[in-house]
Amino acid sequence: MECDIDEIESRYDDLCQASDLVKKYRDTEPDESDEEMRKFNSDVTKTLRKFRSAISTLNAEKVEQCLQVHGDALDGNDEDDKFVRHFRGLLKKKVCENF
Q: Whole-prediction pTM value?
C-alpha cells in the first residue's frame, strides 16, 4: 500500500503541474481555437477529478490524525514544507561545520 500511495502522489503532482502549465499557457496565449490544447486540458481535468474523488474516500479521522502529527512534529508549526526546510537547515549546518 505504501508504494501505491507514493505512486498516486507522484501522478497527482504531475497532473496538478500539468493543469497549472495549461492555465499559464492559456493566460499568455488565449487562442480558444487551439483544439489540441483544449483536448489536453480536458483530459487533465477529467483525470484530476478521478484522483480527487479517490483521495476524498480516505478515512477522514486518519487523515486528521496525520495532519495533527505533522503539525506537532519538529517545532510545532503547521507549515507546508517544514520537513524539507528543516532538512536543508541541518544540511547547511553540517556543510558549514565541515569547512
A: 0.62
Please report, as a single letter, which amino acid is at residue 96.
Answer: C
Residue 15's CB: how many other CB atoms inside 10 A?
Answer: 18
Instruction: Give me 36's grid cell.
Output: 489540441
Mean of all residue pLDDT scores within the chain: 83
SS3 track for the chain: CHHHHHHHHHHHHHHHHHHHHHHHHHHHCCCCCCHHHHHHHHHHHHHHHHHHHHHHCCCHHHHHHHHHHHHHCCCCCCCCCHHHHHHHHHHHHHHHHCC
* Distance separating alpha carbons of residues 21 and 78, to the nearest angstrom: 28
For residue range 67-81, list pLDDT tens digits in order. 788 888 887 776 767
Q: Given phi > 0 = left and psi -120 to 50 = alpha, else beta, which region is 76?
A: left
Cβ proximity of 56 and 17 under 8 Å = no
